[in-house]
Amino acid sequence: MTSHDVLGRQVEMPVQIRQATAFMAMYSVPAAAAQQLIDDTGLEILRFRPGRGLCGLVFVDYVDGDLGPYNEFGVTFMVRDHRSRGGSVLGDLAALARGRSGTLIHRLPVDGEFTLAAGRGIWGFPKVLADFDADHAPDVKHASVGVNGTLIADLTIRPGLRMPAASRSTTMAAYSHLDGITRRTAWDMRPSGIRMRLGGARLTLGSHPIAEELRSLGMPRRALLTTSIPDLRMTFGDATAVR
Fold first, then answer.
1. Percentage with pLDDT > 70 across the chain
2. Phi/psi zone of residue 68: left (φ > 0), alpha (ψ -120 to 50 degrees), beta?
3. Residue 162, in any domain of the structure
4. For the chain, what is the domain count?
């Protein structure tokens, strides 16, 4: 078992998240524009249809875990496995269905100093400090995130249908890029009570640079899919440098 020193405290691996809640909206975005944003990672945007990629906006409330309680906002992209170069839409869809693709954590504002240091130091996650106003409890979920009074994003999603078949353990490849290094982390998720629906999101963007990046992808626009997870457990292993 490995451990990491974070601000004078030992963090044992793997890191356990025992209780969290999350909601997200998934958007279709121009693959070429998204690729420009992530070119320095050496990864490639997964195409779920010709010329289109997938961008997710997710709010997470970490209630009980090894890094303490905190809020998080993620801008993510579905990407091809780091060993894959080029490919077709059919190949990308097959990889997605078989769990052979990955999720690039492109932006990751948080509201805790300890998780900021741990995220950057252990996994190379691009965490930055931000301010949150989040309410995960009602059926209609809402949260906003900003930095020093400048809004990044304000997201509301309406409730969807219960998806009992989706409530199973899943292991994903989470990619990160920080200080010129691209890393891969095994990320195990154990969700319960998942609800999904087509559309169902209202997104407002502010004037922060992250918001401007999202505008460059054509947002705000209608979401493809929205998801809420009232009970989420996760495990993060050590990161491995891949590029």
1. 98
2. left
3. yes
4. 1
User: How confident is the model over 17-63, as pLDDT tens digits?
Assistant: 999 999 999 999 999 999 999 999 999 999 999 999 999 999 999 99
Structural domain range at position 185: 13-241
d(CA 126, CA 120): 6
Report the C-alpha gap between 61 and 184 in whole angstroms. 23
At 130-185, the pLDDT tens digits run: 999 999 999 999 999 999 999 999 999 999 999 876 566 788 899 999 999 999 99
Does residue 3 lie within any of the structural domains?
Answer: no
Distance separating the N- and C-terminal Cα atoms of the chain:
25
What's the rounded Cα separation, in Å, for the pair 120 and 107?
Answer: 12
The CATH number assigned to the domain holding 180 equals 2.40.400.10
Query: Six-digit token pair at 190?
Result: 């154990």
Residue 94 lies in a domain: yes
CB 66 within 8 Å of CB 119: no
